Here is the input.
Amino acid sequence: MSETAEIQKDNLDSRTKLILAAEVLFAREGIDGVSLRQVAAHAGQRNHHAVQYHFGTREDLVQAIFDYRMEQMETRRLEMLAKAKNEGLLHDERTIADIIFLPQLALIDRFGDFSYANFLCQYLLRNSNAEFGRFSDNLPNGLKKVLDLLRKRLNFLGDGAAQRRLITACFMFLNMLAVYTRDLESGRASEDFSEALEDSMRQLVAALFLPVEET
Here is the structure.
């Protein structure tokens, strides 16, 4: 069955089909490497201008993908925040990192890939806002809460430096997902996923919370 047929067969509204189709195509070809008409066709839409109808511009579609996935992770993040609060771990470095990053593990596309990881790497590179945590005007409350906790832990840094560290940590995590998927597909995976995940989390926690060197 073709990928277009896979998207069409689900009981999804047209807007969601366009989001999922665009995510896969943008991940593979680049955000600027695919026409909006291709996105519409991949989503099984007869209207070649379906993207413009539902979203407006390419950038609006890109933002919609980000917001859609953030909202999908909200329930899990709220559960993790509640658990951390009950265990007195809301200010623990590893716990904060886990709440930010681990919900992304559930975002596997219908073809078994972490397409969102490739998409998000491109999204972050396009985001030039130096204000900490400013990735969207519609961040869910759970994500806002954990980013606030992170900002308090990074109170020894200015906003720009704290944002740079957060984005760098994101790239570490997303690269691990993208590389693992690529190597698994090619039969070259030489590392157990759970081991790669744990090592990557330890690496990004060390980099994210590294104290500023005294001069």
The chain has eleven helices and no strands. Residues 73-208 form one domain.
